[in-house]
Design a protein that fits this description.
10 helices, globular
Length: 155
């Protein structure tokens, strides 16, 4: 699909096309559509689409941001083991090597997921599409040093 096609879609089609970009949060696509129409803008690049969607999230309330964050599954968590992730999350976690963890790696991810949720009150989120187990674990450990406010913004 060409990006220009997005600008001419109905709201229902636009949302259906983009609703999975933010995990279980079609409201981001809905509000993106509204913002584009309000500004009488067009989508001419992936960068402009990303910027608009990011703006929608950044302008949302703290409570809404936390709901968005908590709609994501733990990385290599129970949902992954049970096979109940979205198609997109399953593919991303598989590409990152999270579907083939050793027992020791699974234990480390479980421990880090627990520590992170205990400290911040929400799940750890990282775009894992181009990540490896090693980079994910490094990000996990580094971000545990952040403040809660910084982590909300990071997510």
């Amino acid at each position: 699909m060409e990006l220009a096609t997005l600008s001419s879609m109905s709201k229902d089609d636009f949302v259906a096309t983009l609703k999975s970009i933010y995990e279980h949060s079609p409201w981001v696509a809905e509000e993106t559509f509204d913002m584009i129409k309000k500004k009488n803008a067009t989508i001419d690049s992936v960068t402009s689409l990303h910027a608009t969607m990011k703006s929608v999230v950044e302008e949302s309330s703290q409570d809404t941001k936390l709901k968005l964050i908590n709609s994501h599954p733990d990385l290599a968590g129970k949902a992954a083991v049970a096979g109940s992730l979205t198609k997109e999350s399953t593919e991303e976690q598989k590409r990152a090597g999270l579907s083939s963890l050793t027992q020791a790696e699974m234990e480390k991810f479980t421990m880090l997921n627990s520590k992170y949720k205990e400290k911040f009150g929400f799940v750890f989120i990282l775009a894992v599409r181009n990540a490896t187990k090693r980079t994910i674990l490094g990000a996990f450990e580094a971000r545990l040093e952040n403040s809660r406010e910084r982590e909300v913004n990071e997510c």
